[in-house]
Design goal:
By secondary structure, the protein is of the alpha/beta class. It contains 17 helices and 14 strands. The strands form 3 sheets. A 6-stranded parallel sheet has the order 3-2-1-4-5-6, sandwiched between helices. A 6-stranded parallel sheet has the order 11-10-9-12-13-14, sandwiched between helices. Strands 7-8 form a two-stranded parallel sheet. Strand 12, helix 16 (415-421) and strand 13 form a beta-alpha-beta unit. Helix 4 crosses helix 5, helix 11 runs antiparallel to helix 12 (293-320) and helix 12 packs across helix 13. Bound molecules: nicotinamide-adenine-dinucleotide and uridine-5'-diphosphate-glucuronic acid.
């Protein structure tokens, strides 16, 4: 087999696993191996219980696994055999030293580069799939080229734009695939090889090729701009609550302007997920590093509004429940950072729950997919937090229900039944604006939609 059809992905996480499963499905002529240092994760990819929940993923993995898709811990063999190596390891925010709390922690990336040098025996294309600061490819290139075996490594950037919960659909029908390469002959040849993989199913006009730096930076900017839209509408939600305007109506009215568009204008308790905050902070750090404090401040505002939104939500709860929630039972509906995923990384539910616990509330959490993660996130608070695997059990005896994730099933629950079983007065704080507020009010609830006036009887 042509060595450039032997593809390796280092990092079997939320990106590596689904991305490679879809490539395997769409390119039967390629042989793909996904490796990880986490043995448990690799074992899970090889089992019936995949390590992550994504609609449609199981089917794709079952179709391809052990045919042209392999999950393994044997990094040495996999590196030796592959012609193209995607690197999809985590790039969290640095927690120590220079840039702590802002810059990207590149230690996993660098370890991977050194592993590649150690085992490689011939020239390879190394593709950055992880989200990285602009100019990382330069450092990677230097590290890889420091090898003493005379091997040439061509570094490309191919950031991933899939969203969790819709990963498989996004990978099958991407808005665009972005690939950046050096403007050299070797760079352009490597670029053609990676373009050829995607061209198996992505129309050519949707494969955008650029220089490496534009590609690296575009990924950070895309996430920053998506998050900026959310913070923009969330900031307006605060004003709506003061002025009897309704943020959903404002969002629809504004979004009907085709120049603005309607997507990512849903007000809520704030954006979560493993990437928005980390990528914006990374962008802020880079701007500071390059001596652009005004630009850094501009983007930092997006994160500040997100923190404000979470705090604001909790303040409204405390204020409307007679200024104390100590020892009151609160039913938390939804812990995942968004619907259709069990992922709770940076979920607003974590911050909101911790603020409520500081107020000494007693929480009972229900989430159809994320309870296991919720337990880890709230470890240490066992005496004040319970977990329910049924929403009706969750709300029994509670003073309030909080909607923190927009799971579809929350829309169709039997609210009269929930109301009956709750302490009175019963409150609903709809942090995602997915419920029928007037109906709930008519049932007897005190309703607090996000970004519009309270509907209250007390
Ligand atoms: P993840 O934490 O789920 O997975 C990363 C995996 O890499 C882990 O399983 C870890 O064990 C493995 N790993 C770390 N160092 C390794 C090494 N030296 N050798 C082998 N394996 C190693 O992370 P993720 O969510 O898949 O994100 C990966 C990258 O993709 C990040 O840069 C992220 O910003 C970016 N990204 C994520 C998403 C998303 O939806 N999660 C979307 C687009 C881009
Ligand atoms: C986001 C981007 O959408 C992806 O393109 C990108 O690849 C990915 O980050 C990444 O780099 O990790 P993801 O975080 O999985 O994807 O999910 P989103 O759908 O973007 O939602 C992020 C957060 O914003 C969620 O908490 C969601 O509830 C919130 N959100 C989204 C809103 O509050 N309002 C909206 O209108 C949209």
């Amino acid at each position: 087999m042509d060595k450039f059809r032997k593809i390796l992905c280092i990092g079997a996480g939320y990106v590596g696993g689904p991305t490679m499963a879809v490539i395997a499905d769409k390119c039967p002529a390629c042989q793909i191996t996904v490796v990880d240092v986490n043995e448990q994760r690799v074992h899970a990819w090889n089992s019936d219980e995949l390590p992550i929940y994504e609609p449609g993923l199981k089917e794709v993995v079952e179709r391809t696994r052990n045919k042209n898709l392999f999950f393994s811990t044997d990094i040495e063999v996999a590196v030796k055999e592959a012609g193209i190596i995607f690197v999809s390891v985590n790039t969290p925010t640095k927690t120590f030293g220079e840039g702590a709390g802002m810059a990207a922690d590149l230690q996993y990336w660098e370890t991977t580069a050194r592993t590649i040098i150690e085992y490689a025996e011939d020239d390879k294309i190394v593709v950055e799939k992880s989200t990285l600061p602009v100019k990382t490819a330069e450092a990677m290139h230097k590290i890889l080229e420091s090898n003493t075996k005379g091997i040439h490594f061509e570094v490309l950037s191919n950031p991933e734009f899939m969203a969790e919960g819709t990963a498989v659909d996004d990978l099958r029908n991407p808005d665009r695939v972005l690939i950046g390469a050096m403007q050299t002959e070797a760079g352009q040849e490597a670029l053609r090889r990676v373009v050829d993989i995607y061209a198996n199913w992505v129309p050519r006009e949707k494969i955008k090729t650029t220089n490496v730096w534009s590609s690296e930076l575009s990924k950070l900017v895309a996430n920053a701009m998506l998050a900026q839209r959310i913070s923009s509408i969330n900031s307006i939600s605060a004003l709506c609550e003061k002025t009897d305007a309704d943020v959903t109506e404002v969002s629809e009215a504004v979004g009907m302007d085709s120049r603005i568009g309607s997507k990512f204008l849903r007000a809520g308790v704030g954006f979560g997920g493993s990437c928005f905050k980390k990528d914006i902070l990374n962008l802020v750090y880079l701007c500071g590093h390059y001596g652009l404090p005004e630009v850094a401040d501009y983007w930092e505002g997006v994160v500040k509004i997100n923190d404000f939104q979470e705090r604001r939500f909790v303040k409204r709860i405390v204020a409307s429940m007679f200024n104390t929630i100590a020892n009151k039972k609160i039913a938390v509906f939804g812990f995942a950072f968004k619907a259709d995923t069990g992922d709770t990384r940076e979920a607003p539910a974590i911050y909101i729950s911790k603020m409520l616990l500081e107020e000494r509330a007693l929480l009972r959490v229900y989430d159809p997919e994320a309870l296991e993660n919720a337990r880890k996130d709230l470890a240490g608070f066992e005496e004040m937090v319970e977990y329910a695997d049924d929403p009706y059990v969750c709300a029994e005896g509670a003073h309030a229900i909080l909607i923190l994730t927009e799971w579809r099933e929350f829309k169709t629950l039997d609210y009269p039944r929930l109301f009956e079983s709750m302490s009175k007065p019963a409150f609903v704080f709809d942090g995602r604006n997915i419920l029928e507020h007037k109906k709930l009010y008519d049932m007897g609830f005190n309703v607090y939609p996000l970004g519009s006036s309270d509907m209250t009887r007390v």
